[in-house]
Records
---
Amino acid sequence: MIKHITTPLTPEIISSLQAGDKVLISGIIYSARDAAHKRLYEMIKKGEKLPIELEGQIIYYVGPCPAKPGTVIGSAGPTTSGRMDAYTPLLLEKGLKGMIGKGFRSKEVVDAIVKYGAVYFGAIGGAGALLADSIKDSKIVAFEDLGPEAIYEFKVENFPAIVIIDKEGNDLYKIGVEKYREI
Amino acid sequence: MREVHVDEIIAAVEKLCIEANIKLPEDVKFALNKAVEKETSPLGREILNDIIKNYQIAEEKDLAICQDTGFAVFFVKLGQDVRITGGNFTEAINEGVRRGYKNGYLRKSIVNDPLIYRKNTGDNTPAIIHLEIVPGDKIHITFAPKGGGSENMSALRMLKPSDGVEGLKKFVLETVRQAGPNPCPPIIIGVGIGGTIEVATLIAKKALLRPIGEHHPMPEIAELEKELLEEVNKLGIGPQGFGGKTTALAVNIETFPAHIASLPVAINIQCHVARHKEVEI
């Protein structure tokens, strides 16, 4: 069964999701990867106002290809989430509710997901052309000087993802691999 | 002496950059389609089908297969009877990269200083060029853009000669297990054995250029490639790490003579978007 969800994420939506669930996400999501995370983190530490409101939002770990003329965006698949781990607990503390990426998260991030009631989604790594199809609108909202690492606001329709870590801390990477492991 | 003008090199490199990032090599496509038939995890099969759909969309729409259009890595075999005219060879490759990444709407993924400033160079240069001088009057250029996610999961270890085949197997399995979902499985595993530290890593990367299904000329090593692939696919990682039988599409080993004291082993991991394309000038 595929669950349709919309942003911003409410506690009810988050409670309805379990590791392994397939979801289609619609609404506004924000891109941010390494350099943007570093800046957001430093701004919070200094008590500055962030360029995006984090409450209930989803951050997509992506640095897209440039858009060709007449298109919304170029290829836009997920990057490895683990590089954002050092910054993520603070963003979750400040209200971030969802992340889309690929790959392992640290124990600190999983603990923060459980503590603040958030969810970690996976999108297919290396499927940037397919994923770009569900991005219907795109604009840069912060850190334009970072090029592909700027923060984009994406309007997505039925963006396909899978729940990897739910608010209970269940982890699809562990559950899935245990089932098929022979050595 | 045959003269080749830099403009010809620039044009060829521009074309290579764009085409390699849009169209997946046929052997990789074939391996992905074969993997769908073999995969026992229903979710794993769905993921593989989406990966196939992705390369089809990329080709139809002239889009990059993956947004990480990589570090621009070149393997150049330069014929010793070629004379380059009109400019600088290295600069010609870099100019081709600049044009290809701009005109192909490819992502610029390189930062200038790796530690302190990390400012994007804005044009995906500098390229990495591995140059070999060979007999003849041709220039053979292979372009293999390399994504960061899979490169980050690569590893090098200076084994002891007494570690032998078992030590090597253990190292490969450990590296793939630790990488888990991070390098976007199904992956291709390039293993470089022998040489000095830099040769081991270089031949591990070269191993990734070998078509899937082709094996090392030495029967013992060819057998080891097959055995390692089987073992890796028992780890259960599966497509995207969600569980399954298809963790790797191939294990390719390259070897080089080693020092009497050494057994260097490098593992270069490549995601399923295993891009490379060649041209001869």
Note: The beta strands of chain B are 2-5, 73-79, 82-85, 128-134, 139-143, 155-159, 187-193, 248-255, 263-270, 277-280.
---
Amino acid sequence: MAEISNEGGGKQKGGKVKQKKISVFVDFTPMVDMNMLLITFFMLCTSLSKPQTMEIVMPTNKENIEEQDMSQVKESLAFTLLLDGDDKVYYFNGKPDYKNYNSLHDLSYNANAENSIRNTLTDRNREAIEKINELKLKKLNLEIADTVFTREASEIRNGKNTPTVIIKATDAATYKNLIDALDEMQICNIGKYVIDKIGVGDEFLIENKKTNGEHGLKYNIPK
Amino acid sequence: MSKAKVARKSTRIDMTAMSDVTVLLLTFFMLTSTFVKKEPVQVNTPGSVSEVKIPETNILSILIDTEGKVFMSFDKQEDMIKTLIAVSKEFPEAYQYNVEIDTETGKLTGDPEDVKLLTKFKILPTFGADIRQMKEFLAMKSEDQDRVLPTLGIPTDSVSGVKYANGSVKTQFELWVEKANAGKSTDDKLRIAIKADQKTSYAVIKTVMNSLQTLKENRYNLITSLKQANDDKQSH
């Protein structure tokens, strides 16, 4: 393979041409060595897979928005998630009830737990999830195109009777908690969700829940 | 007595095929890979099921470590220098670089000392320092920079920010982001990607998000690593 047989350089002797074969054998070992070294370098210094990202769209600053421009959420469809430290998460439906600490319910990030965010939200969003599953099946059977699927799925997600989730996190929560919560939105096909600032009232609710109502007896309900 | 004759075989192995394979592998690695950027702090991104890949170019990535220190990296070097000069101008007490950039070639002209500093700045993969200390930081040797950088970070508090005559305050972080996108049309605006550690407190993330919100940068990406959602639970 790496030999190049060279014919020529024959000496003439008595009319007969005697050809001498010179074999040029190129030794590729150093070449392989060098290549291996380079491969090792590239393997160690590069990342093959690009990192995953999550795209989020935040609302613009509230200061410049008129009351009438704000989108209103139906009370029965509002679902507020409160993320607290130590991987604790709570929710309440609709408007908060400051008097009753039991209106705040415990949740869990663990998908296998009985009261996981996933179970609770899939329950609320059953209709949309079923429709999306049907759509997925259609896509699998190649009945509809990818673009049609994306468009219709987002239509279902943002449908009339799907819940609107408001995510609020306390300062004690971690970034992972936030990402986990956002993740559940995607898994549960929630189209309408927003990250909002936590208010004094929400913190009051959490404190009240933690102390089983004692906090509410000591302090006044915030306005 | 006859000696047993051992046939002499050449021990030479033809390495050509091996070389072919290695060159092929090398080409593959060179074409498919992107270099890992040197980051001053180790960041473990949280896992998510999202499968959106990050766009390759025009990215302004914001790195936030566990303690809440903020670093930045650009993928275009000209942007970096332009932004640094623009941010410095906002701070009268900070060092002013006496350098002009040629818009076409990107060549720096001006005070040779400053050109040297900015050339050093340009090759930094990730940076983050108070603008008032930036000159001292740039004057350091590269080994010293690596050592010091994790203790610095771009300040996100309003105290070290700039106060305008009309009473409004901009933090240094806000200025960096604003100047990075200054004078750009909506199409070639830098896409902001936030890369934060799992354990970073939400309080820090909140300040960064609020800063972006005041700048009307409402769309951005959060960098996560891949995690599989268990599907049996999903249909449950």
Note: Chain A has a mean pLDDT of 78.
